[in-house]
Predict the 3D structure of the following.
Amino acid sequence: MHKDHSLEAHVPVHDRHESTYYEKRTYAIQALLIEKGIITADEVRRAVEDMDSRTPALGARVVARAWVDPAFKARLLSDAKAAVAELGIDVSPLSVLVAVENTEKVHHVVVCTLCSCYPRSILGLPPDWYKSLNYRSRVVADPRGVLKEFGLELDPDVEVRVLDSTADMRYLVIPARPPGTENMSEEELAGLVTRDSMIGVAKARNPGGS
Ligand code: FE
């Protein structure tokens, strides 16, 4: 089994249910690393705390800035990690981040077919469905069908691109800015940017709330 790159394995889930083989193995490795002085329990705790503090609100800030600032959007599309760092967001856990833009002509949707690679630094932990075998296998074979199940029906002339994440490359989808948002502030716009729209299984919210 391909190991998830997350810190979730460090959460003491063994307190809640019977530990799986991999949970036990993770705990054994963690205990050994601490015992040998390579990491400390406090470092593990801080890393988990940092991960838990990250939410899709970070990514929403990035998208809203891209919507209002074309120069920033250009930088985001050419070097996403550097552009995100401009906003004071710590991107050090990220290897490579690639931003892609959804338009009237092309729609990107992100998956990790192998496991659950996800831009956690700016979106927090992935939803359960993102990690499911169902989504991972089917979105590649039938992206339009899967998007329809999410309630997103794309016109036949829209090109659909499925992006497969890896441990070394994560993707951020910049959803299209909804119509009727010309007079909204950057902060208000960020409120329209949902997690799912940044994965590409939904569009950004409309200002009316839909
Ligand atoms: Fe993965």
Observations:
- The radius of gyration is 19 Å.
- Residues 21-35 form the longest helix (15 residues).
- Residues 55-199 form a domain with the Nitrile Hydratase; Chain A fold (CATH 3.90.330.10).
